[in-house]
Amino acid sequence: MFEKNFCFDDVLLVPQLSDIISRKEINLSSSLENNIDFLIPIISSPMDTVTESKMACKMNSLGGLGVIHRYNSIEEQSKIILEVSKTGHSAAAIGVSGDYIERAQSLKDAGANILCIDIAHGHHVLMRHALKALRNTVGYDIHIMAGNVATLEAFNDLADWGANSIRVGIGGGSICSTRIQTGHGMPTFQSIVNCSKSDRNVALIADGGIRNSGDIVKSLAAGADFVMLGSLLAGTDESPGDEFVSNGKKLKTYRGMASKNAQMEWRGHTASIEGVTSSVSAKGSLQDTILELMTGARSGLSYTGARTIRQLQASSKFIQQTSAGSVESSTHIKLK
Ligand code: IMP
Protein backbone atom coordinates (compact mmCIF):
# COMPACT_ATOMS: atom_id res chain seq x y z
CA MET A 1 0.00 0.00 0.00
CA PHE A 2 2.75 2.44 0.95
CA GLU A 3 5.78 3.18 -1.12
CA LYS A 4 8.97 2.29 0.72
CA ASN A 5 11.37 5.20 1.11
CA PHE A 6 14.66 5.94 2.75
CA CYS A 7 16.33 8.74 4.66
CA PHE A 8 20.08 9.41 5.00
CA ASP A 9 20.46 7.19 8.08
CA ASP A 10 18.70 4.26 6.41
CA VAL A 11 21.50 3.80 3.89
CA LEU A 12 25.25 3.38 3.57
CA LEU A 13 27.60 3.39 0.61
CA VAL A 14 29.51 0.16 0.04
CA PRO A 15 33.31 0.64 0.09
CA GLN A 16 34.82 -0.42 -3.25
CA LEU A 17 38.24 -1.08 -4.77
CA SER A 18 40.07 2.23 -4.97
CA ASP A 19 43.24 3.25 -6.81
CA ILE A 20 43.26 6.76 -5.41
CA ILE A 21 46.60 7.38 -3.76
CA SER A 22 46.02 10.95 -2.62
CA ARG A 23 42.76 12.78 -1.94
CA LYS A 24 44.23 15.60 -4.02
CA GLU A 25 43.35 13.49 -7.08
CA ILE A 26 39.69 14.02 -6.30
CA ASN A 27 37.86 16.79 -8.11
CA LEU A 28 34.66 18.03 -6.48
CA SER A 29 33.74 20.59 -9.14
CA SER A 30 30.17 20.85 -10.37
CA SER A 31 28.08 23.00 -12.71
CA LEU A 32 24.67 24.62 -12.46
CA GLU A 33 24.65 24.78 -16.25
CA ASN A 34 27.21 25.15 -19.06
CA ASN A 35 29.64 27.91 -18.07
CA ILE A 36 28.24 28.32 -14.55
CA ASP A 37 30.90 26.26 -12.85
CA PHE A 38 31.98 25.80 -9.23
CA LEU A 39 35.01 24.22 -7.57
CA ILE A 40 32.90 22.74 -4.78
CA PRO A 41 29.29 21.51 -4.83
CA ILE A 42 28.15 23.65 -1.91
CA ILE A 43 25.47 26.37 -1.84
CA SER A 44 24.48 28.30 1.29
CA SER A 45 20.75 28.67 2.00
CA PRO A 46 18.78 31.87 1.32
CA MET A 47 17.99 32.42 5.00
CA ASP A 48 18.48 35.55 7.11
CA THR A 49 20.72 33.71 9.60
CA VAL A 50 22.83 32.14 6.84
CA THR A 51 23.44 34.21 3.70
CA GLU A 52 24.06 37.92 3.29
CA SER A 53 27.02 39.72 1.72
CA LYS A 54 29.85 38.29 3.87
CA MET A 55 28.72 34.69 3.42
CA ALA A 56 28.14 35.01 -0.34
CA CYS A 57 31.49 36.75 -0.98
CA LYS A 58 33.39 34.12 1.02
CA MET A 59 31.48 31.27 -0.65
CA ASN A 60 32.59 32.73 -3.98
CA SER A 61 36.21 32.84 -2.91
CA LEU A 62 36.02 29.22 -1.69
CA GLY A 63 34.55 28.05 -5.00
CA GLY A 64 30.92 27.59 -3.93
CA LEU A 65 27.85 29.82 -3.99
CA GLY A 66 25.71 31.78 -1.52
CA VAL A 67 22.11 32.72 -2.29
CA ILE A 68 21.10 36.08 -0.79
CA HIS A 69 17.81 35.78 1.10
CA ARG A 70 14.75 37.84 0.12
CA TYR A 71 13.57 38.98 3.54
CA ASN A 72 14.51 42.63 3.12
CA SER A 73 13.66 45.56 0.86
CA ILE A 74 14.43 45.48 -2.86
CA GLU A 75 17.03 48.24 -2.26
CA GLU A 76 18.77 46.35 0.57
CA GLN A 77 18.91 43.08 -1.36
CA SER A 78 20.10 44.82 -4.55
CA LYS A 79 22.84 46.61 -2.60
CA ILE A 80 24.09 43.27 -1.27
CA ILE A 81 24.02 41.81 -4.80
CA LEU A 82 26.07 44.75 -6.06
CA GLU A 83 28.75 43.99 -3.42
CA VAL A 84 28.75 40.25 -4.16
CA SER A 85 28.90 40.75 -7.98
CA LYS A 86 32.42 42.01 -7.67
CA THR A 87 33.64 38.74 -6.27
CA GLY A 88 32.17 36.24 -8.75
CA HIS A 89 28.75 34.63 -9.15
CA SER A 90 25.88 36.39 -7.45
CA ALA A 91 22.61 34.69 -6.64
CA ALA A 92 19.49 36.16 -5.09
CA ALA A 93 16.20 34.71 -3.88
CA ILE A 94 12.79 36.03 -4.89
CA GLY A 95 9.19 34.94 -4.25
CA VAL A 96 6.22 34.41 -6.59
CA SER A 97 3.88 37.22 -5.54
CA GLY A 98 3.79 40.94 -4.75
CA ASP A 99 6.75 42.90 -6.08
CA TYR A 100 8.80 39.88 -7.20
CA ILE A 101 9.11 40.98 -10.83
CA GLU A 102 10.35 44.44 -9.85
CA ARG A 103 12.71 42.77 -7.36
CA ALA A 104 14.03 40.38 -10.03
CA GLN A 105 14.67 43.23 -12.45
CA SER A 106 16.46 45.28 -9.81
CA LEU A 107 18.61 42.29 -8.79
CA LYS A 108 19.51 41.60 -12.41
CA ASP A 109 20.45 45.27 -12.88
CA ALA A 110 22.64 45.03 -9.76
CA GLY A 111 24.56 42.14 -11.35
CA ALA A 112 22.79 38.95 -10.24
CA ASN A 113 23.49 36.10 -12.68
CA ILE A 114 21.38 33.59 -10.76
CA LEU A 115 17.83 34.10 -9.47
CA CYS A 116 16.34 31.61 -7.03
CA ILE A 117 12.55 31.30 -6.88
CA ASP A 118 12.36 30.36 -3.24
CA ILE A 119 9.03 28.96 -2.05
CA ALA A 120 8.16 26.18 0.36
CA HIS A 121 5.92 24.23 -2.05
CA GLY A 122 7.45 24.71 -5.47
CA HIS A 123 5.12 22.36 -7.36
CA HIS A 124 2.51 25.04 -7.65
CA VAL A 125 0.72 26.98 -10.37
CA LEU A 126 2.18 30.18 -8.91
CA MET A 127 5.62 28.78 -9.73
CA ARG A 128 4.55 28.14 -13.31
CA HIS A 129 3.21 31.70 -13.61
CA ALA A 130 6.35 33.15 -12.03
CA LEU A 131 8.73 31.25 -14.32
CA LYS A 132 6.78 32.43 -17.36
CA ALA A 133 6.56 36.03 -16.18
CA LEU A 134 10.23 36.11 -15.24
CA ARG A 135 11.39 34.79 -18.60
CA ASN A 136 9.30 37.54 -20.22
CA THR A 137 11.01 40.23 -18.14
CA VAL A 138 14.56 39.10 -17.31
CA GLY A 139 14.97 36.90 -20.38
CA TYR A 140 16.95 33.70 -20.84
CA ASP A 141 20.49 34.94 -20.15
CA ILE A 142 20.01 34.52 -16.41
CA HIS A 143 20.07 31.21 -14.55
CA ILE A 144 16.86 30.43 -12.67
CA MET A 145 17.00 28.08 -9.71
CA ALA A 146 13.59 27.03 -8.41
CA GLY A 147 12.05 24.97 -5.62
CA ASN A 148 11.50 23.25 -3.39
CA VAL A 149 10.08 20.01 -4.68
CA ALA A 150 9.95 16.43 -3.43
CA THR A 151 8.88 14.31 -6.40
CA LEU A 152 10.05 13.41 -9.90
CA GLU A 153 6.78 14.72 -11.33
CA ALA A 154 7.39 18.11 -9.71
CA PHE A 155 11.04 18.12 -10.80
CA ASN A 156 10.08 17.49 -14.43
CA ASP A 157 7.30 20.09 -14.32
CA LEU A 158 9.61 22.82 -13.01
CA ALA A 159 12.20 21.89 -15.63
CA ASP A 160 9.54 22.06 -18.37
CA TRP A 161 8.33 25.41 -17.02
CA GLY A 162 11.83 26.83 -17.51
CA ALA A 163 13.87 26.26 -14.35
CA ASN A 164 17.61 25.67 -14.89
CA SER A 165 18.27 24.07 -11.50
CA ILE A 166 15.91 22.69 -8.88
CA ARG A 167 16.10 22.50 -5.08
CA VAL A 168 14.98 19.07 -3.92
CA GLY A 169 13.75 18.36 -0.38
CA ILE A 170 10.53 19.11 1.48
CA GLY A 171 10.24 18.94 5.24
CA GLY A 172 13.76 17.72 5.99
CA GLY A 173 15.45 20.93 7.19
CA SER A 174 16.89 20.96 10.70
CA ILE A 175 14.67 23.93 11.70
CA CYS A 176 11.65 22.73 9.71
CA SER A 177 8.29 21.79 11.19
CA THR A 178 6.42 21.36 7.88
CA ARG A 179 5.88 17.63 8.41
CA ILE A 180 4.50 18.24 11.91
CA GLN A 181 2.34 21.18 10.85
CA THR A 182 1.04 19.75 7.57
CA GLY A 183 1.66 16.00 7.54
CA HIS A 184 3.45 16.42 4.20
CA GLY A 185 7.03 15.80 3.18
CA MET A 186 9.42 13.19 1.91
CA PRO A 187 12.85 12.15 3.17
CA THR A 188 15.34 14.32 1.30
CA PHE A 189 17.47 11.30 0.40
CA GLN A 190 14.52 9.56 -1.27
CA SER A 191 13.55 12.74 -3.12
CA ILE A 192 17.09 12.94 -4.53
CA VAL A 193 16.95 9.30 -5.66
CA ASN A 194 13.57 9.84 -7.34
CA CYS A 195 14.34 13.22 -8.94
CA SER A 196 17.71 12.03 -10.23
CA LYS A 197 15.79 9.70 -12.58
CA SER A 198 14.74 12.78 -14.56
CA ASP A 199 15.88 12.97 -18.17
CA ARG A 200 15.69 16.79 -18.13
CA ASN A 201 18.97 18.67 -18.43
CA VAL A 202 18.62 20.51 -15.13
CA ALA A 203 20.91 20.56 -12.08
CA LEU A 204 19.66 18.93 -8.87
CA ILE A 205 20.35 20.68 -5.56
CA ALA A 206 19.77 18.52 -2.47
CA ASP A 207 18.35 20.74 0.26
CA GLY A 208 17.36 20.11 3.85
CA GLY A 209 18.63 17.79 6.56
CA ILE A 210 22.28 17.53 5.51
CA ARG A 211 24.16 17.18 8.81
CA ASN A 212 27.73 16.15 7.93
CA SER A 213 30.08 15.27 5.08
CA GLY A 214 28.67 11.73 5.03
CA ASP A 215 25.24 13.13 4.11
CA ILE A 216 26.91 15.28 1.42
CA VAL A 217 28.55 12.19 -0.12
CA LYS A 218 25.27 10.22 0.03
CA SER A 219 23.43 13.15 -1.65
CA LEU A 220 25.97 13.42 -4.46
CA ALA A 221 26.11 9.64 -4.94
CA ALA A 222 22.29 9.49 -5.14
CA GLY A 223 22.32 12.02 -7.98
CA ALA A 224 22.62 15.55 -6.58
CA ASP A 225 24.88 18.02 -8.40
CA PHE A 226 25.02 20.30 -5.35
CA VAL A 227 23.97 20.35 -1.72
CA MET A 228 22.41 23.37 -0.06
CA LEU A 229 23.37 23.92 3.57
CA GLY A 230 21.70 25.88 6.36
CA SER A 231 22.55 24.62 9.85
CA LEU A 232 26.06 23.50 8.88
CA LEU A 233 27.01 27.08 7.92
CA ALA A 234 24.84 29.15 10.31
CA GLY A 235 27.40 29.14 13.12
CA THR A 236 30.31 30.47 11.08
CA ASP A 237 31.81 33.97 11.38
CA GLU A 238 30.43 34.83 7.93
CA SER A 239 26.74 34.21 8.74
CA PRO A 240 24.62 37.25 9.73
CA GLY A 241 24.01 37.90 13.44
CA ASP A 242 26.17 38.18 16.54
CA GLU A 243 27.51 35.46 18.78
CA PHE A 244 26.04 35.23 22.25
CA VAL A 245 26.95 33.17 25.29
CA SER A 246 24.53 30.75 26.97
CA ASN A 247 25.59 28.33 29.73
CA GLY A 248 29.19 29.12 28.90
CA LYS A 249 28.77 28.18 25.22
CA LYS A 250 29.22 30.55 22.29
CA LEU A 251 26.16 30.35 20.04
CA LYS A 252 24.54 32.02 17.04
CA THR A 253 20.84 32.20 16.24
CA TYR A 254 19.58 29.96 13.44
CA ARG A 255 15.94 30.09 12.45
CA GLY A 256 13.57 28.77 9.83
CA MET A 257 12.24 31.46 7.50
CA ALA A 258 8.71 30.18 8.22
CA SER A 259 9.28 30.39 12.00
CA LYS A 260 7.09 32.72 14.05
CA ASN A 261 10.04 35.04 14.79
CA ALA A 262 11.15 35.34 11.20
CA GLN A 263 7.61 35.89 9.86
CA MET A 264 6.83 38.55 12.48
CA GLU A 265 10.05 40.36 11.65
CA TRP A 266 9.70 40.40 7.87
CA ARG A 267 5.96 40.71 7.35
CA GLY A 268 4.55 41.74 10.73
CA HIS A 269 2.12 38.83 11.06
CA THR A 270 2.21 35.05 10.79
CA ALA A 271 0.67 32.63 8.33
CA SER A 272 1.25 28.88 8.79
CA ILE A 273 4.22 28.46 11.12
CA GLU A 274 6.43 25.75 9.60
CA GLY A 275 9.79 26.41 11.20
CA VAL A 276 11.45 27.03 14.55
CA THR A 277 14.00 29.41 16.00
CA SER A 278 17.05 27.75 17.46
CA SER A 279 20.76 28.29 17.91
CA VAL A 280 23.91 26.57 16.74
CA SER A 281 27.44 26.57 18.16
CA ALA A 282 29.62 29.40 16.94
CA LYS A 283 32.37 27.61 15.03
CA GLY A 284 34.78 30.16 13.62
CA SER A 285 35.67 30.73 9.99
CA LEU A 286 33.59 29.48 7.06
CA GLN A 287 36.86 28.44 5.43
CA ASP A 288 37.62 25.93 8.21
CA THR A 289 34.08 24.50 8.10
CA ILE A 290 34.14 24.13 4.31
CA LEU A 291 37.64 22.61 4.41
CA GLU A 292 36.49 20.03 6.97
CA LEU A 293 33.37 19.15 4.94
CA MET A 294 35.30 18.89 1.68
CA THR A 295 38.03 16.77 3.27
CA GLY A 296 35.32 14.36 4.43
CA ALA A 297 33.64 14.43 1.01
CA ARG A 298 36.97 13.72 -0.76
CA SER A 299 37.57 10.80 1.56
CA GLY A 300 34.03 9.63 0.76
CA LEU A 301 34.72 9.59 -2.98
CA SER A 302 37.94 7.69 -2.41
CA TYR A 303 36.06 4.91 -0.56
CA THR A 304 34.07 4.34 -3.77
CA GLY A 305 37.19 4.73 -5.90
CA ALA A 306 35.73 7.80 -7.66
CA ARG A 307 37.70 10.85 -8.79
CA THR A 308 34.71 13.00 -9.75
CA ILE A 309 31.09 13.44 -8.74
CA ARG A 310 30.00 11.83 -12.04
CA GLN A 311 32.19 8.78 -11.34
CA LEU A 312 30.73 8.54 -7.85
CA GLN A 313 27.20 8.60 -9.28
CA ALA A 314 28.07 5.97 -11.87
CA SER A 315 29.72 3.47 -9.54
CA SER A 316 28.26 3.98 -6.06
CA LYS A 317 26.30 1.15 -4.43
CA PHE A 318 23.88 1.80 -1.60
CA ILE A 319 22.75 -0.75 0.97
CA GLN A 320 19.95 -0.46 3.48
CA GLN A 321 20.96 -0.42 7.15
CA THR A 322 19.02 -2.15 9.88
CA SER A 323 18.16 -0.02 12.92
CA ALA A 324 20.92 -1.85 14.85
CA GLY A 325 23.27 -0.99 11.98
CA SER A 326 22.33 2.64 12.21
CA VAL A 327 23.20 2.67 15.93
CA GLU A 328 26.52 0.96 15.16
CA SER A 329 27.17 3.58 12.45
CA SER A 330 27.19 6.43 14.93
CA THR A 331 29.99 6.67 17.48
CA HIS A 332 28.82 4.35 20.24
CA ILE A 333 31.57 3.99 22.80
CA LYS A 334 30.16 3.47 26.30
CA LEU A 335 31.78 5.03 29.36
CA LYS A 336 33.11 2.33 31.73
P1 IMP B 1 19.28 22.51 7.09
O1 IMP B 1 20.52 22.56 6.23
O2 IMP B 1 18.89 21.13 7.50
O3 IMP B 1 19.40 23.43 8.26
O4 IMP B 1 18.07 23.00 6.18
C1 IMP B 1 18.10 24.23 5.48
C2 IMP B 1 16.92 24.28 4.52
O5 IMP B 1 15.68 24.30 5.25
C3 IMP B 1 16.84 25.54 3.69
O6 IMP B 1 17.73 25.56 2.60
C4 IMP B 1 15.38 25.55 3.27
O7 IMP B 1 15.14 24.73 2.15
C5 IMP B 1 14.68 24.93 4.46
N1 IMP B 1 14.00 25.92 5.32
C6 IMP B 1 14.39 27.16 5.67
N2 IMP B 1 13.52 27.73 6.52
C7 IMP B 1 12.53 26.82 6.70
C8 IMP B 1 11.33 26.82 7.49
O8 IMP B 1 11.02 27.74 8.23
N3 IMP B 1 10.56 25.70 7.39
C9 IMP B 1 10.89 24.64 6.60
N4 IMP B 1 12.02 24.58 5.89
C10 IMP B 1 12.83 25.67 5.93
What does this structure look like?
The protein has 336 residues and is α/β, with parallel strands linked by helices. The chain is 36% helix and 19% strand. The chain has helices at 53-62, 74-84, 100-109, 125-138, 152-160, 178-182, 188-195, 213-222, 231-234, 260-267, 286-304, 309-315, 323-329, and strands at 11-13, 30-33, 36-38, 42-44, 65-68, 91-94, 114-118, 143-149, 165-168, 203-207, 226-229, 244-246, 249-255, 277-281, 318-320. The strands form 4 sheets. An 8-stranded parallel beta barrel has the order 4-5-6-7-8-9-10-11, surrounded by 7 helices. Strands 12-13-14 form a 3-stranded antiparallel β-sheet. The longest helix is centred in the C-terminal third of the chain and has 19 residues, at 286-304. The model has no long low-confidence stretch (mean pLDDT 97). Bound molecules: inosinic acid. Residues 45, 47, 148, 173-176, 178, 207-210, 228-231, 256-259, 274-275 line the site of inosinic acid (IMP).
Radius of gyration: 19 Å
**Helix percentage:** 25-40%
Which structural category do the helix and sheet elements fall into? alpha/beta
Largest sheet: 8 strands, parallel, barrel
Q: What's the average pLDDT?
A: 97
Q: Order of strands across the biggest sheet?
A: 4-5-6-7-8-9-10-11
Bound molecules: inosinic acid
Q: Tell me the span between the first and last alpha carbons.
A: 46 Å
| SS element count, helices | 13
Uncertain runs: none
- Based on CA inertia axes, which overall geometry fits? globular
| Strand composition percent | 15-25%
Order of helices and strands: EEEEHEHEHEHEHEHHEHEHEEHEHHEH
Q: Care to count the β-strands?
A: 15
